[in-house]
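Please, structure for the following, as tokens.
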Amino acid sequence: MIKTIIFILVTGAVVSAFVWMADYPGTMTVAWYGGLLEIALPVVFCGLLLFTIIVGLLYRLWWTIKRAPRAISNARKNNKRERGYKALTQGMVAVAAGDSNEARRQAQKADNYLGEPPLTMLLSAQAAQLSGDEAAATRYFESMLKRKETAFLGLRGLLMQAERNGDCVAALSYAARANTLKPKTPWVLTKLFELQVQQLQWKSALATLDQSIKTNSIKLSEGKRLRAVVLLGCSLEAETAGDQFTALSYAERAQKENSKYLPAVIRRTQLMNKLRKSRGLTKLIRDTWGHTPHPILAELYAGKAVEKDPLLRVKKFEELRELNPYHPESGVALARSLIDAKIWGAARTRLEELTAERPSSRVCHLMAELEESENQDAKKARHWLVRATSAPPDSAWLCSACGSSNMSWTPLCNRCGGLGTLEWGAAEKIASNLDGPLFGELPNKETDQDWSIIKPNQSLQRYGS
């Protein structure tokens, strides 16, 4: 548009000059070698215009010739760059297609054309991985670490290699370095948290989880759920180190995330019992029993002081039953204490209430014990023991991810390694959210269980650090 306006203005000026000279004709006299030349002004003007045009064309020709070498060089470079990027693109397509030979050939071709290692190192590393040359791939990834612009990609490649090789220590190191380079990258935070949990580095995992929540890499609700589990891991870690007060502090923080989270309540009550905080212990158990009874809470509520006084133990469990009278756990705890106190009639009454519908394996065993202890009736005792083999399984720590049964609570499932997937309940309740085949894998408990929460070093021994 601007060029058009300039052209119109110049043309108008030339035409105006010719019109002016036509209106005011004249001649120009030039002395030339002793003579005089008279030239009409329009002719002079045309000559000057022609001379200007010729000079401009000559200058343009000279400028073009002067810049020709550089233009030719730039054209050749652009052509090589286009071919290099084309080879790079085709190499990426070959990697996606799994063609290692084509990927390697295109990587070499791109490197020759581009001469820029940062652009081709990743393709070369992926081509080496496709062909099974892990050593070469490692060299390429390590070379990428030396350049700021490719260091992050190099760390990701080395991280993936370490995971494939089962080297969790190296993978964790690479993930930590990647998080240092790009601390707000969601997949880096997720992978770093996962590796820290696998290696039971609970305090580091807690810091990473808080960072993920802060950067919105994880939903707040899910973050709070996982935070309670990780805090319990920190509690176990602290107790293993011999610091029970810090362990209790972590357990209290875990319960603050979810006041009704049963593993946190049990963990806290166990530590309070060890530290002899009896007043707070009793209150916490009474507050919890109304909505989530558990055998450990019953034992801790009774306390060691009443072990030698069966009647006082019965009284304690009667108090507990009043807090949740219709829950089977209340009846089982009271019946157990009545049998120990040899109050047969009351024990039978409680157990008959529990056997009215579908008694669990544990209730059947208590009935067998009652028949044996009160009446020495071996036949009826055997009847209840046989019935226990087909009775519904008792409540246990069941994994909501894989359906496996765990004898005690751990932050990680002993079978699938799921974090915070263990829930207390009957097999039918937990397995209702699982696929059919997983339900069949749940064991049928035939004997009394160990309901204890995880022992301080159990998870450490299982997973190792």
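DSSP finds 22 helices and five strands in the chain. Residues 430-465 have pLDDT under 50 and may be disordered.
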